[in-house]
Amino acid sequence: MRLADAVNKLAEGNVASFGRLLGYRGGAFVRQMLLGRRAISDKTVRRIESLRGMRGWFSPALAHAQEDAAPAYDYGAGPEVYQLYPVQLRVRTGIAGYTVVPDESDEDAPLSLHRHWLARRGYRPTRLLALRMAAAGMEPALHVGDVFVLDTAETTLRDGQVFAINFYGEVLVRRVQRDGDGWWLVADNLDQARYPRKACAGPDCVPIGRVVFKQGENI
Fold it and tell me: How far apart are the C-alpha atoms of 38 and 24, rounded to whole Å?
């Protein structure tokens, strides 16, 4: 998450100091943003990007470039258990980026992932998002209400894997399949008349990340 990276870069992880740097009284607002309980406002983005060395900080292209050039992630330096609060994503047609907003329907505890589990799989906590399944298109793999974790570092489509896609301005969770020279978004739900497969091509089909974990109550 770019906000967390900014806190580490400018204030060595001190949320209160970072908040004061932005003109807030302390770190309360920033902490709520980090937990996904408050949307990162345009005003906050502008304040951060106006600081020295932070121009374009929230640009997706810059974020990926810096991630690729970054050294290996030090899992031992972070907490033993990482907590992810479910969020929602707002996307726009043809735009490779998104806005993270709190999931107001969430009344559960945060989803917890142990650092050893993350390290074995090479997942960077700052690139993970927890979302709640809102539709039945992926049943029985993902039921409505299930919480799943998205690795936003993985945007290269992989045959047979489940991805979240910005599809014409809608976040669509589907299994991707290679058919000939093209990619298709396929629902696991057997009702293919209601959930037909869709061609993924051009600027209106933008991968957001791959689903790497789920938490649900349907066995």
Answer: 15
